[in-house]
Amino acid sequence: MLYRETGQFKTTYRADQAIFPILQDKIGVLAILAFAVFVVPFAADNYLLETILVPVLVFSLAAIGLNILTGYCGQLSLGTGGFMACGAFFSYKLATAFPDLNLILVFLLAGLGTSVVGVLFGLPSLRIKGFYLAVATLAAQFFLIWVFNKFGWWTNDSPSGVISAPPREVLGFVVTSSEAHPISKYLFLVVLVAVLALVAKNLVRSRIGRSWMAIRDMDIAAEIIGIRPLVAKLSAFAVSSFYIGIAGGLWAFIYTGSVEALAFQIDRSFQVLFMVILGGLGSILGSFLGAIFIVLLPIALNVTMLAIDPTFSVALVSDMEFMLFGALIIFFLIVEPHGLARLWQIGKEKLRLWPFPY
Amino acid sequence: MVTAPRVFNEVLLEVRRISLSFGGVKALTDISFDIRKGEIRAIIGPNGAGKTSMLNVINGFYHPQEGEVIFKGETRRAMRPHKAAKQGIARTFQNVALFKGMSTLDNIMTGRLLKMRSNVLLQALYWGPNEREEIEHRAFCEEIIDFLEIQAIRKTPVGKLPYGLQKRVELARALAMEPELLLLDEPMAGMNVEEKEDMSRFILDVNDHFGTTIALIEHDMGVVMDLSDRVVVLDYGRKLADGTPDEVRSNQEVVDAYLGVAH
């Protein structure tokens, strides 16, 4: 009854092409944003902010990045971790080499640097597809981590290979390093991620987004229509790597504060890939849902298992986590390949009719 | 019905002595014909005659070993399909080649891709010129949607549509490119009589309304003879005959090879 678009007539194409054409969606998203900005920072404690909300936001951004490449453009990539490392180390080098550079600029430049790397490793996609491309991006993953491990220049010759984020301010609040207050970290992330998500949504509903989806769905027909596969695929790699690079920078600077290259190994790539698969391929909302789900699942599992029996060992809990992940991935791939976002959509469609049968 | 045969003089596309082979298999041998501006040109022939290969040569998928394609007075030998699209050649496929994950409207909007100009930054902001451009092209697509009578399915993902409608959406997408030459590869394959009648009407309307030159491959002889101004017949990669439907129908070689020898 509540979620119904009946009576919401569009009289202009402008209104029909709006980002949230249904009134309830618009109100809902604005309400969530307002809640996230005005209520959460004051209601949530530091644990909730630092161990749940901050990583959710960082992962959401990485998942949006991978979703653009894999979900929208259909190019399977296992190099996410490597590109996140690029973003992290580029941010570090920029921030330490130019201490006066605005932090937002640092992240944007690091993102741009990562897109260049992404385009380079995306070049094989012009010739190979599917699993073969996944293997090629795997090369990127291992190569990049090796580079950041091998050359001390990237870490300013830190003996342990660990980089620590220098404290940097945005609008007078410290948001990076351990000096930052969780609330300022969180608010900075919320705003940045919301803006970047909006940009991603705009891209996928514009010309460039349609050219990505055309390449994904049928590359031969796309070429017939005048889409140049080279441009479409490489632009997807560029935009995707831009997002993933920024996410890597945020990971190092805001989430953990100090990080080494090994934090971005292949596990990280899989983690983000699972978020995209579970959340929903080809959906910006799904990227958020997937990130929330994968960050929360281990925590929720831990809490429930210890609630059932406090004597469960840590090893058992972490094994359970792996088993549950595996089962869930298989479940989603078989039952709902479009992930949580699709379930949400089905729910909405049901809600449009409810409580009537049709 | 058409009373007098329509006459066309300006040549839009000419294929000259095209030969194409894959390894030892000769798909096309020494084929020449032209397509004139404004006409409906049919390419017919038994299975494996090389009809689809011919279309693939015209729009740049295959590069013939010999011969040349002259489009709008410009000769070319090797060209990528997206360049052909830019020059104004659109096509549909024998087995529907739509973007399954996208809605009908988005599919048709991709057809406008070459006409859109705004840069990536504007698209990222979805603001000003980009929004105006999107609305402008949306309006054009809606005209095509009205023209092909698919208003009710504009927001439906094309994967969910029945076959006949998918074929129509594919035609809509090709029309959105505002092509000068439209290649239709078996637009009526697998359709029932009503759907064929609809599709025939749309093809005639497109030709009439937009002045689009059409080259079509079709197996239904009734449709071919009724729709087309001129027919070229291929068999085993060679050209058997070329002329008006009446000429082709009375050509003994065509009757023997294609329509069957009377026993």
Q: What's the mean pLDDT score of chain B?
A: 87
Largest interface: A-B, 33 and 39 residues
Please mark out the parts of chain A with pLDDT under 50 across 5 or more consecutive residues, or reply none. Answer: none
Count up the helices of chain A. 14
Basic shape of chain B: globular
CATH architecture of the largest domain in chain B: 3-Layer(aba) Sandwich
Percent strand of chain B:
15-25%
Rounded Rg of chain B: 19 Å
- The secondary structure category of chain B is alpha/beta
Helix fraction of chain A by DSSP (H/I, runs of at least 4): over 70%
Spatial sequence of strands, sheet with the most strands of chain A: 1-4
Strand order of the largest sheet of chain B: 6-7-8-3-9-10
Structure, explained:
Chain B: One of its GO terms (molecular function) is ATP hydrolysis activity. Chain A is mainly alpha-helical and 358 residues long. Helix content of chain A is 72%, strand content 3%. Chain A has a domain at 44-264. Chain A has 14 helices and four strands. In chain A, helix 3 (46-72) crosses helix 11, helix 4 (80-97) packs parallel to helix 6 and helix 12 (284-308) runs antiparallel to helix 13. The longest helix of chain A is centred in the C-terminal third of the chain and has 28 residues, at 229-256. Chain A is globular, with a radius of gyration of 21 Å. Chain A starts with 12 loop residues before the first helix and ends in a 5-residue tail after the last helix. The mean pLDDT of chain A is 87. Chain B has two domains: 7-88 and 179-263, Rossmann fold; 97-178, no CATH class. Chain B has helices at residues 51-58, 81-87, 104-110, 120-125, 129-147, 163-176, 193-209, 221-227, 245-250, 252-259, and strands spanning 11-22, 25-36, 40-44, 66-71, 74-76, 89-92, 181-185, 213-217, 230-235, 238-243. In chain B, strand 4 and strand 5 (74-76) form a beta hairpin. In chain B, helix 3 (104-110) packs parallel to helix 6. Chain B starts with 10 loop residues before the first strand and ends with a helix.
